[in-house]
Known about the structure:
Blueprint: E1 3-4, E2 12-16, E3 21-25, E4 31-32, H1 33-47, E5 69-71, H2 87-96, E6 102-103, H3 113-116, H4 127-137, E7 149-155, E8 164-170, H5 177-182, E9 187-195, E10 198-207, E11 211-215, E12 220-225, E13 232-240, E14 246-255, H6 258-267, E15 282-288, E16 302-310, E17 313-315, H7 326-333, H8 344-355, H9 359-362
Parallel strand pairs: 5-7, 6-10
Antiparallel strand pairs: 1-4, 2-3, 7-8, 8-9, 9-10, 11-12, 12-13, 13-14, 14-15, 15-16, 16-17
Amino acid sequence: MKKRTLSIMLVVSLLCTGCGTTFNLSDVGNKSTKSIKEESMDLQNKSSNKEENISDNSNSSSDVSSIEVNENESSEAGSTNGNTDTDGIDRYEAFISNTEKVYFDEESDVLPYHLQRKFDNSEGYTLDEIIETSLNAYYDNDKSKGDPSIQKQYIDCGKDGVKELLVDIRYPGMENSEYEEFDDKYVDHWVIKEVDNQLVVKYFGTDSLRSYTCINEYGCVNILNIGAYLGVLPETFGYLDENANWVLYYRYYYYLDMSDFVREKGNLGLNLEYSSEEWKDMQVEEYLFDDEAGYTDSDKTGFTIYVKTDDNGVVEDDSIYGDSSEYKEFFDDAGINTCPRSEVEKRLEERREEIGLSEDVMG
């Protein structure tokens, strides 16, 4: 059986406010595909507990204004952890009470396309209006499953002592039978910051079927996907800095087979030719440092690793990265920047230093 070689050599402990649990992302390089599947299911099961603190309003009035707001117990509403300026907290509380509006940066593309079509970046929105506008975009929403419910929590993006507001909005009407099968929830995560006496939307993420956006108490973000689609498993790691601006750590892609890598790069216009027999039992992983990059064409955009596998797992053999290696020559000719598997930890450490991501923020 082939082994997954997810070479995240550091340990990243994330308290997932969206996932309701603490978990570690560590080096799992020599685990079997079966083990990865089992771990994915375990993570999904933990993630299913994330709604325990989100109020269930299935019996409430259909009027959005009747929705109860449940505060996460781990974050005191009035606590600022040393922040003497309480204006931001007051505004956050006013927003939760629908007496304050939140605004968008008019140049921002923080929202996904289906919501961008409904929201006007030049307008402000109360919490009720955010829910109503979102529901207008969610055409599959089944009202019979109950009203949206809300959970709020204060986080400290960049760990600078200044609080930001994280609002989780669950839409039970978006949860079809497949959600029920996996005990998943549909939840939108809104990170809001007080900027120049005004509330601004700084980040948006979603939990949906087999996909989870986890945000820890210091704004570290992990977007997890359970299961590979068309032979590709994507994950995203980053953080919200002291200004709550998104900073990409890396986008990770794990390709179950070389043919999956070749197909996906071909879709981006990078045509690669290879012999399936020569690349049998080879697997590929990408670490992209640029949100816009389609592949790793330089150290700036990231690196790609490739490994041999057999029934016992990864074959530790750095000779496949040597100048005389046919595998190395293949990637070099394609203009793809590669990295030996043994150097992944070093490269990721350098990346964290480059973007200012501290261990304190990672949690």
